[in-house]
Specification:
Number of strands: 13
Structural class: mainly beta
Strand content: 25-35%
Length: 231
C-alpha cells in the first residue's frame, strides 16, 4: 500500500513539472515576431515621405524674369527692352517701320532679305542702352540670345538705329552677326536699336512665349545676364 501511494505521488509531481515548464511552441503569443515577419516601418510618421525635404523644383535656382519696358543695368551699361515679338518677315523699307515685324507676302517679299526661311523664326526686339561709366564705352553691343521651344540661338543682327526722329540703317550688313562690329557710346548718352535673332525652328504661333537673355558688361571685366520673358 505504501509503495502504491508513493508511485501515485511521484506521477502527480511529474505531471505538475511538465505543466509549469510552458514549452514556447508556435502558439506562444508572447514570442516576438522577428525575421521575415518584422513589420517595423522606417518611414516617417504617417508612412509618407519626408515633407521637409526640398522638391526638385525648389532645388533649382530661381530665375528672375523681366518684361518689356523693364530696365536692367550693371555699373557701366543700362539696358531697356522697348519691344519684342516673333516674326517671319520684317520691313525692309528705311522709314519709321524699318526692321519692324510685318505680315509675310510671297509676292511683295520675294526680294526682301529680311524674311525667315522655312523652319526658322525671327525673335525681333528694340532696345535702348545708356553708358553709365565715367569714360566712353568702345565695344560690342549687348550679347543677346533667344530661346524658343527648347531651341537657343545667338544669331543676332542689328540693322536699324533711331537717329533724330526716324529709324535709319546702321550700315551693318543685315546678314552678318552684330558681334563683327564695334561702336562707341559716349558718357551718359542713349542709343536705340532694332534687332532680330534667327532661331532655327518654326513657330507654332507668333504670339508664343519666348525668352531673351541679355548679357551686359561689368567694370571688373565680367558680365551679368538678365532674362526677359515675352508672350
Amino acid at each position: 500500500m505504501k509503495k502504491l501511494l508513493a508511485l501515485m505521488l511521484a506521477a502527480a509531481l511529474a505531471l505538475s513539472l511538465v505543466a509549469c515548464s510552458g514549452g514556447g511552441g508556435a502558439g506562444d503569443n508572447n514570442t516576438p515576431s522577428g525575421g521575415n515577419g518584422d513589420t517595423t516601418s522606417t518611414d516617417t510618421p504617417g508612412g509618407g515621405e519626408d515633407d521637409s525635404a526640398p522638391t526638385e523644383e525648389e532645388s533649382k535656382e530661381k530665375v528672375e524674369y523681366y518684361k518689356i519696358g523693364d530696365t536692367v543695368s550693371t555699373d557701366i551699361i543700362e539696358f531697356t527692352l522697348d519691344e519684342a515679338e516673333l516674326a517671319v518677315a520684317l520691313s525692309n523699307t528705311v522709314d519709321e517701320n524699318y526692321f519692324q515685324p510685318k505680315e509675310y507676302d510671297p509676292q511683295r517679299d520675294a526680294q526682301n532679305p529680311l524674311v525667315a526661311a522655312k523652319g526658322h523664326t525671327y525673335a525681333t526686339f528694340s532696345y535702348t542702352i545708356c553708358n553709365l561709366d565715367r569714360t566712353n564705352y568702345n565695344g560690342q553691343l549687348p550679347f543677346v540670345t533667344a530661346e524658343y521651344k527648347d531651341t537657343t540661338s545667338n544669331k543676332q543682327v542689328d540693322g536699324a538705329e533711331y537717329k533724330g526722329d526716324t529709324w535709319i540703317t546702321t550700315g551693318n550688313n543685315p546678314t552678318s552677326p552684330v558681334y563683327s562690329w564695334r561702336f562707341v557710346l559716349d558718357v551718359g548718352i542713349e542709343r536705340s536699336f532694332r534687332s532680330f535673332i534667327d532661331i532655327p525652328v518654326e513657330a507654332d504661333n507668333l504670339t508664343d512665349e519666348f525668352l531673351l537673355n541679355i548679357e551686359l558688361p561689368v567694370s571688373d571685366g565680367t558680365t551679368s545676364i538678365y532674362t526677359y520673358k515675352i508672350g
